[in-house]
Amino acid sequence: MVTRRTLLGGAGAAALSAATGLRQASAQTKGAPVRGGSLTWGVETEPSTLNPHLNGQAKAKLVLRNAYETLLARTPDGGYVPWLAKDYAISEDGRTYTFTLRDDVTFHDGEKLDAAAVALNFAKLKEPTYSGSISAGHVSHVSEAIAVDARTLVLKLSRVYAPFLDGAAGIEILSPKSFASAQLKAGGSEIAGTGPFRIERYVKGQEIRFVRNPAYNWAPANAGHQGPAYLDSVTYRFLPEAAVRTGALTSGQVDVIEGISGNDAGLFKDNPEFTYQSALNTGTPYTLYLNVAQGPSEDVRVRQAVLAAVDVERVIRSVYRGERQRAWGILTPADTDFYDRSIEGSYGFDPKRANQLLDEAGWNSRDAEGFRTKNGKRLTIEIVQSQATLRDQRDILLQAVQAQARQNAGLDLVLRYVDAGTYTTRQNDGQYGIIPNSTTTQENGVTIYFHYLPRDKGGSINYSRTEAPEISAWLDEAASTLDAKKRFEIYARLQRFALLEQAYGLPLYVPDDQIAASARVKGVGFRPFKRLPENAYDIWLQG
C-alpha cells in the first residue's frame, strides 16, 4: 500500500508557483531571452574527478550539474518536483520506494534512460571498489534495485531509513556504457549524463568546456524555461585565487565568477556594471572537529576549553568584513527542516572558563613562549586542513583562530595544509587533532549520519571519531521514523550533546556562496534548496 506521493503538492506547489511568478516578473523587466553565445565563468575549485558519483566537492557541483541530472529536483521549502522521474511513492511500511521515469530522456551517448539504467547506477554505488565511502551512506540501505519495466524502478530497503529519499533522489544518473569506460574513475566525455550540456574539452589545471545538448527537453518543473539551453557553450576557468577571479571579471576576461571574498564584495554591490548575489548553503557549517580518540583533545575539558577560548564573532567579522554569518549548530540555518535555533547563544567565548578547564585538566604550567604544558609537554593540537577545501579565505580564518587560542588560553594549535592523498591517509588513520570542514552535498539531516555515526556503521566523515552509544541510538531512532517532528527533536538533542556537553566541534561560519556577473549576463542564480550556484541552463546573454 502506498502512503505518500508528494510531487507538486501543498507547500511545494505554492513555493513553485511563487518562484515561477518571480521568474516571469523578472523576465518582463529584462526582455525576452536570447539564444546563442558563449559564457566564461571563473570558478574557485577544480573538480577532483569529473565523475559525479565519486566527487564529494560541493563546489564542483556547479560544474558537473551541467551534464548530470537526478531523479527529482528540490523546491525552496525542501519538497520535490519531477525531473528524470515524473512521480514517486513510498510504501506504508517505509521500506519500498517506487519511481516512475520519464519516457523521453536520452543520455549524451545516445542510449535511452530506462529503469534498468537507473537500477544499475544504484547497484554500482553499492560496490565499495567503485564508490568507496559513498557506499556507506544512503545507498547501503538498498537491498534490491528492481527494473519492473522500462519506466518503473523499485528500490527495496533493508530497514526503514527516513533520510533515504533526500539522498537517493539526488544521485546523478550515468549511462550504462559509462561503467565500462576507462574514464570511469576520472570522469570525462565518455561518462555520459542527460544534462543540458555535455563535456567537450577538459584541460587539467586550466578549464573545462561544455557545449549545448540540442536534444534536451526534460528540465525540472521549477527550471526557468523548457527545451535546450540558451547558450551554445559555457567554459569554466579554474582560478583558485579570489583576487585573480575578481580581476578577471572586472577586466572582462570572464563573464561570471563565484567565491567573492569579503574584501571584494563592495566592488560589485550596487555597481550598475555588475550583479551580485549571495546565499547560505544547507548542510554543515565550516567546523573545527576535535578528535576524541587521540592526544589532548581526548579530554572533554580540553575540547570545551577550545570552544571557550575563541571569540568566533570577532574572528568572522575581522576576516570576512561582515560578509559571512557566524555558525552555532551542527547544521546550517539554511536547513529549514532540522536546524534548531535554540542552540544560538547557548555557548561561546569565555576565556575565564577556558583557562579554568585547562587548569582542572592538569595543563597548569607554561613554557617560555606562554603555551600550556603538563609534565614538560606542550598542549599542542594539530589542525589538518586539506588543500582541496582551502577556499573562502579559510587559511586566514584558521590563522586568526590559532592566534586567539594562544592569546586567550595558551593553546598551541598547529596548522598543517596537506594534499588530497595525505589528507585521506591522516583522516582514515585518525592522525590529527582537529579536522576543519563543511559539507554541502547532503540535506534534511542526512549529513548528520555521515558525521556522527561510528565509521564502521556509516560515519564516513566522522571527523571527531566519536562512538558515543547515545548518538548511535538517537540516529537509529530518527532513521526509523518518517515523522519529521520527531526527527527534529532527536537531532536537537544530539546537537546539544555533541556541542554543549562533549564539545566534538567548534562551528565557525555558515558556508555562503556568492556570484558576481557582468550586467549583460541574465538568468544566473542559485539552486532552489541547496543554494549552491546553479548550472548554466537558464543563463542567456543580453546585447
What would your notes on this structure say?
The chain is α+β, with helices and mostly antiparallel strands and 543 residues long. 27% of the residues lie in helices and 23% in strands. It has 15 helices and 25 strands. The chain has helices at 11-30, 61-64, 115-125, 128-131, 164-168, 242-250, 265-268, 300-309, 312-320, 351-360, 394-409, 420-429, 446-452, 469-479, 484-501, and strands at residues 2-4, 38-43, 72-74, 80-82, 85-91, 96-101, 142-149, 152-157, 197-203, 207-212, 233-238, 256-258, 274-280, 284-290, 325-326, 365-366, 372-374, 377-378, 380-386, 412-418, 434-439, 505-510, 512-518, 521-522, 540-541. The strands form seven sheets. It has a seven-stranded mixed beta sheet with strand order 9-10-11-2-12-23-13, covered by helices on one side. A five-stranded antiparallel beta sheet has the order 1-5-6-8-7, covered by helices on one side. Strand 5 (85-91) and strand 6 form a beta hairpin. Helix 8 (300-309) packs antiparallel against helix 10, helix 9 (312-320) packs antiparallel against helix 11 (394-409) and helix 14 runs antiparallel to helix 15. The radius of gyration is 24 Å and the shape is globular.
Radius of gyration: 24 Å
Q: What is the mean predicted local confidence, pLDDT? A: 90
Oligomer: single chain
Tell me the strand order in the biggest sheet.
9-10-11-2-12-23-13
Q: Which spans of ≥5 residues are poorly predicted at pLDDT below 50?
A: 8-29
Q: Looking at the structure, what is the overall shape?
A: globular
In total, the number of strands is 25
* Alpha plus pi helix count: 15
Beta-strand percentage range:
15-25%
Provide the structure class: alpha+beta
Helical content band? 25-40%
The largest sheet is: 7 strands, mixed
